[in-house]
């Protein structure tokens, strides 16, 4: 996927993305980082054809993303949004089955293929024991796995996740990150996600895109780009970067740099 010079505005007045260029590498995990309001979710939305750029275009498999029919795009790319809502009385299995919608035509659907995709999504996300529960009977971490399972049931080669670990405790955060890593390594899914936890970004990404004020400041392998200088430039936070024999590279935020406004 190529992002070619995207400039985007919600209201036609203020640009929230300014001439953004990047290439999403197939089969890799790419993580978008940056402070609140810098345009991470906006970029993810434009990259999934959810918003028309003022300038530039996103190319997927040689074709501009805006030229895909919605169902055609939904067979290539699935999105797990930051906030998800569904009726509380819907069972896990029924909800996951909605992921099959893009594969149905007006006249037919391959029931065996649908069943196999739903079973695969349930198995990947370890929801076998929860399939007949309703959403309200699940923990936050289990609910997040349901949304991921629904996206997996789409059987797309590309998966976008917007802040998949927000509101989850340490256990569930790790569980989701390990699931994402497994989906990438075992099934070759191309993953693009937004994360706030810089250490998670460092540990699980092949490529990091660092944004500030609607622009890409730096992108590349986490070990190459995540320097103390870059983090201070992007977040206004001083950090120390350490390497531990067991834990590898890790970042410790030390101090917010207060700047006059
Ligand atoms: N639907 C919208 N209509 C108008 N402005 C919006 C809309 N969504 C976001 N914005 C604005 O666009 C800018 C970028 O927002 P975006 O949600 O992409 O940032 P973000 O980096 O994902 O932030 P966060 O980390 O807080 O989720 C912000 O100034 C935000 O207020």
TrEMBL record:
PROSITE patterns: ABC_TRANSPORTER_1, ABC_TRANSPORTER_2
UniProt domain ABC transporter: residue ranges: 1-238
Higher taxonomy: Bacteria, Bacillati, Bacillota, Bacilli, Bacillales
Keyword NAD: no
Gene Ontology molecular function terms on file: ATP binding
Organism annotation: Paenibacillus wenxiniae
InterPro entries, per the entry: AAA+_ATPase, ABC_transporter-like_ATP-bd, ABC_transporter-like_CS, P-loop_NTPase, Siderophore_ABC-ATPase
Key words, A-Z: ATP-binding, Cell membrane, Ion transport, Iron, Iron transport, Membrane, Nucleotide-binding, Transport
Protein name per the record: ABC transporter ATP-binding protein
């Amino acid at each position: 996927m190529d992002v070619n010079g995207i400039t985007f505005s919600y209201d036609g007045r203020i640009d929230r993305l300014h001439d953004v260029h990047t290439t999403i590498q197939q089969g890799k995990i790419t993580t978008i980082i940056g402070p609140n309001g810098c345009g991470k979710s906006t970029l993810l939305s434009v990259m999934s054809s959810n918003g028309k750029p003022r300038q530039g275009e996103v190319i997927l498999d040689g074709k501009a993303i805006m030229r895909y029919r919605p169902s055609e795009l939904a067979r290539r790319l699935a999105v797990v949004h930051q906030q998800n809502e569904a009726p509380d009385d819907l069972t896990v299995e029924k909800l996951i089955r909605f992921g099959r919608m893009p594969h149905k035509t007006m006249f037919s659907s391959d029931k065996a293929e649908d069943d196999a995709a739903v079973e695969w999504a349930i198995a990947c996300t370890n929801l076998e024991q929860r399939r007949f529960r309703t959403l309200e009977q699940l923990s936050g971490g289990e609910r997040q796995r349901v949304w991921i399972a629904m996206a997996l049931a789409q059987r797309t080669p590309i998966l976008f996740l917007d802040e998949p670990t927000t509101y989850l405790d340490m256990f569930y955060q790790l569980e989701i990150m390990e699931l994402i890593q497994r989906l990438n390594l075992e099934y070759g899914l191309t993953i693009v996600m937004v994360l706030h936890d810089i250490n998670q970004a460092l540990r699980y990404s092949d490529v990091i895109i660092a944004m500030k004020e609607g622009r890409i400041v730096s992108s590349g392998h986490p070990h190459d780009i995540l320097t103390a200088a870059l983090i201070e430039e992007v977040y206004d936070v001083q950090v120390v970067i350490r390497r531990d024999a067991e834990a590898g590279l890790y970042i410790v935020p030390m101090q917010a740099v207060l700047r006059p406004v």
